[in-house]
Design a protein that fits this description.
Elements lengths: L3 E7 L2 E9 L4 E3 L2 E2 H5 L3 H13 L6 E8 L3 H19 L4 H4 L32
Parallel strand pairs: 3-5
Antiparallel strand pairs: 1-2, 2-5, 3-4
Length: 129
């Protein structure tokens, strides 16, 4: 099995993911997953969810580079990238990941600010007098 590459996206974040056969080590931006996400345990579980569903926790090494957004968007982009890399790694994983929505790019992004408004939809306070 060779090195597999995939890209994951969420909000304004992009995760480039390289997957190789190995021991289950996850490296993000040169740091281990625990050092990168710190005490955000729920986000760690979301990132490793595709690996646990396909039972690949201890059989692949993941190296990733994330840019843009914050930890929430980057961790979800990483999850998307890992899912896509697993499908490229072995097409048999696709029916396992698809029902959980792991292969769908979450397209919700921040709405743009409109002219004459304070934010995207918020208008100025109305003064009667």
């Amino acid at each position: 099995m060779a090195k597999t590459y995939a890209t994951g996206r969420r909000k304004t974040s992009i995760a480039k993911v390289w997957m190789t056969p190995g021991t289950g080590k996850i490296t993000v931006n040169g740091l281990s997953l625990d050092a990168w996400l710190g005490g955000l345990e729920a986000k760690k579980l979301r990132v490793t969810q595709p690996l646990s569903l396909t039972k690949q926790d201890t059989s692949v090494d993941i190296t990733a580079k994330t840019t843009g957004g914050g930890f929430s968007g980057q961790s979800d982009a990483l999850r998307h990238g890992i899912s896509r890399a697993l499908c490229a790694f072995d097409p048999a994983f696709r029916p396992v990941l698809k029902p959980y929505g792991m292969l769908t790019r979450d397209s919700r992004i921040v709405e743009r600010k409109k002219p004459g408004r304070r934010k995207a939809r918020r208008s100025r306070q109305f003064s009667k007098r």
